[in-house]
Structure formats: structure tokens, C-alpha cells
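Subject: sequence -> C-alpha cells, single chain

Hey, anyone have a minute? Need the predicted structure for the following. Not urgent.
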Amino acid sequence: MSNNPPEDTRRVPLTNRMSLVANAAQPISAQVEMPTFGVLGSEGAAAMTQPTAPFSAFTPAEPPVRIQLPPASATGDVLGGSAETAGGGAEIEFQADPGAGEAYLLLQEIETPDGIIYDVSLPQVIDQPAAESGVLGGAPTETLRFPVRRLVNEPTGPTPTGEPGVLGGFEDLISDAIGEVTFKRVLHLLRAPVAASVEALIDEYEGPATMYIVTLDGGPGPVLADANAWRTHFDPAHEYRVLLFIHGFLSDAETSLPSNWMREMAPHYDAMLAYSHPTIADGPVENAAELLENVPEDIRLKVDIIAYSRGGVVARSLVELQPHAPKFDVQRILTCGTPHAGTLLAEFRRWDRLASIGLTASSWLMRTTGAAPLAFVPKMLEFILRAGGQLFFDLPGVNALDPQSEFILQLNTPGDPMSVYRVPYAVVISTFDPGQITLPNFRDALWSLSVNTFIGAPNDLVVDTPSMSSVDLPFARQISGWIHKTDVNHFAYFDDPTVLAFAREFFLGQS
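Reply:
Had a minute. Here:
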């Protein structure tokens, strides 16, 4: 890749090693900011409650830079890419030290009066991951380029309601203010030491697959650590009707249990369980196999499954990709926001989009509800970004959700036709309209981030809507009549009373 920009672009030096490359016709300004207390990677960050605080591995590689950049149209390629082809897009160009053994990422922090939008970019240095590259020893080239995605101000989907906010138009961005309120867009070029083994770091953090008893109040109870623990709760001489919860991507059973649902369902089951499992290091088939290995052969369970997000394809793997096991006889499966046909965010080129959505959702929900979302633990996002920053793409749990992955193709290839009739499925799908968000500035900015991520396709912020019901399409009668539509975001399925009513009808025959 040439270091010289084409004639229709210009390079604006920002620091000794960092430049902004953009269309020559764009009115752009940039200035170096003084580092502030709590900036990602600073000494104060560890004490903060901001979702970026757990990014302990990353420190500033260059001083933060404030920029002003006109918004993009929502047509065409709004995902950024090379400034040479993006029709006026922009890039940060960074001269890295290939011998430093560091991984890099660019964090765009957009401060609105209603919260912070995080937009992450990984270095754009290759087109395909090397098949057996493993962990690289440092930057593969001296010049790294990071797309600076422009905010979008022309809706292609649902139009946000209310008065224009931070994305109200060209004038707002150039003036950098709305009335009396000032906002900032600051770029942080960050670095982390190349990890000798990304897998080891992830394995240590995620831990092994674990089955929990769920208490009557809907919380996590004792761990079923071995056969004796199982037999303490389940007499091999009896058969039990059990409700199982399977969590989603970058989460765990302890923190993501829908307690209100479990309390509601408890009187109708002999026991309730929650399965906690690795979602980065292991794929859904491995998760399903480990679950079955966990259950002693002499136990007899009739199991209904509530599966959230990625948990839905783990549940399907139990039925469709594992031999039928009488000890764990699945009766019904309900999936909420599950990427049955994969999600665009799992493509390795979009891992930065995944992190952007996760960090921003955490920022928004922590500000409005005081609670982090059920998925996307920032520390786990850091592991994915760290891997992508050093060009290591072998993360089975993430790769499996790529719409073109071998797993997704296998899962949706008709197998045993009898499973269609043996185990009924129900699905909850959503098309989230950011117009519901009452914070006007954050609403418009989050809408822009969603457009940049999905290119206008209907989605719940994480999964595109059609994927949520794409279950073995040749055998779609498996979910015929059991599709519930809602308009919540990906982190709010268990807060919607209409979804709970749908679950009661599906599992219990009660409206």
C-alpha cells in the first residue's frame, strides 16, 4: 500500500507519527487535545464506571485528537474503508514500529449531552486472514490505516422522532455545538502488547462450562460440579420436568439470568437450570457437547429451553447436531434475538463494529437504567479487539456466527426430518426503532452507529431481523405460528411483557 495519497485526497499531520487522510474537498479541522483524567488507558480509567474502564491492556499510543468532519449520506458504503475509495471518507494513517510487538486500534469517542458514543476501528492492512498465521509478533507493516467513519445524517430506515440533535446537519458538526451545549468528537490511537496466546487469556477469563441450579427467586444457585452434585438434586429413579436458560454472546449465566421469567415459570417445573459456557473460545457445537457430557447417564430430564441471542444456536445444536440423549430430552426451544442465520457483526472485518455497538449500548444503558446490558462485557470485547489488532482471527465462538461460516451452513442444512416434529421451536424477533429513545442527542447518534453497522437493514442493534427467524428454511413449519414480533433492542427482550406472555403460551399453554 502506497504511503502517498492520491491527488484528490490530502494528508493533515496530527502528530509525528499520525496523519488524517481525507478527501481534499472536505472542510476538516483537527487539533491535539490535552489528555484528561479517565481517558481510556490512563491512570484514572481503572476507577471509572465507564464501560471502557476494563480495557486495561490498552494505553495511548499518541495524544488524543479532536476532529470536525462533515456527516455522510446514508447511501452507498457508509462503513468507511480506504480514503482512496470511500468517496470522501477519512482515515487515520499511523507509522507503527514493526518491531515493537504492539497491537493498535482507533477509538472514536463522541461526547453528546446524553451520553458517549464509541466507534472503534481496527487497522485495515489485509483483505483475508492468513489461514495459519497464529499470533503475529507485531505490526505487519510500518503504515497502519484506520477508517474514521463519518456520522450519518440522512435516514434510510425509521426516522428518529423529535428535533434534530447532534447529527442534525452539517452546520451542527462544523459549529460543534447545539444551542448552548457543546459536544466533542475525539480520536484515541491506542496500543497493547501483542499477547503470546490470545486463547490462553480468553480461556482464563471465560472459564469452563458450568451448570447451575436456578433458585425459586430466579437467581443462580448451587453449581452441579460432578455426578454426585447432580444426584443430590435429581434422583435417578425419577423423571423431571426442567426449564433451562442458555445465555448469549460475551455473557454468562450468573449475570444474565432473566430472574423475572424464572420466578414466573418456577411453579410449573420440577427444577430450573442455567448453563454458563465459553462464547469466544468454543463454538456452539462444542458448547452443546459439553452440556451433554456434564449430565450423568442415569439422570432423566424433560427439558424446555429459553435461549437468548447466541444461546439459541447452542440449543439448536443440542437437537440438530448432537445424538438424541434420553438423559436430556429437549421438549421445546424458545429463542429471543438469536442469529439463526448468523450476524454481520461476527465477520472478522466487523469485529470493530461489534465492539462499537457493545461499548455504546453499555454507555447508554448504564446512563439510563444504571445497569450494564446482559451481553457484551467490555473486558471480553477487549479480548476480541486485541486479537483483531494483532491480526489473529481464530476465535471459534465468534467465527461460528459469521453468516458464511461452516457452522451456520451446517446448522441450516436439513438433517433428521423427525426433529422437525419432535422438538417445536418458537422465535422472538425484533426491529428496533431508535426513535423510542427519549434522549434526543444520543438517539440520533445511536441511529447513525446502527446505520454504519447494518447499512440500513432492520435489526435489534446486534442481529439483523430476518436472521432471527431463519430456522432450517426448508422445514420452516417447525416455527409456523410461533413467531412473536416486538420492537425492543437486543438487550431488552426479557423486559417486554408481551414476550413473557408469548413464552407462557408456548411452554405452558397459558395466555
